[in-house]
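Hi U.,

Before I forget, here's the chain from the pilot set. I'm dumping it here mostly so it's searchable later in email.
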Amino acid sequence: MDKERRNPFHGLVDSISEWNRMREVGSGRIGPEAGHEGRRRTYATAWVPSTDVVARGRDLVIRVSLSGVSPEDVEITLSSDVLTVSGERRGDPDDQDETFYVRERYYGVFMRSWTLPAGIRADDVSADFENGLLEITVKGGAADVPEPRRIEIKRRP
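Structure:
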């Protein structure tokens, strides 16, 4: 039997993809091209930065794509085993002197959260920011997923 490594985040990734799909299907993307001029962005319509979550040995590494965001505009918090990255992409995309032909970049506030294994402390978390990529390392945060064990079925006499 092949020993393939199980992805402990498989269900989480599926859920995030489905949430993103549902958010975009209803009224389409928010912006002038969708006929929503003047509509104020809420948490439900805020932009969500692309993220990769990987294991590096026993550490968990979270990479968040934040092009155009200054490191000073990003906050990372850990509370009750929940790691949260929030911040804001500043700028005025509504410049009156410009006519947008394509508008795909979002501005404003964002927030992403991940539930970490119990017992992770703030001292276990470090972050680096380079060229628009935020990389957060959680020491000892990679989930230990034991190999499945076969349980023998016994026959009754």
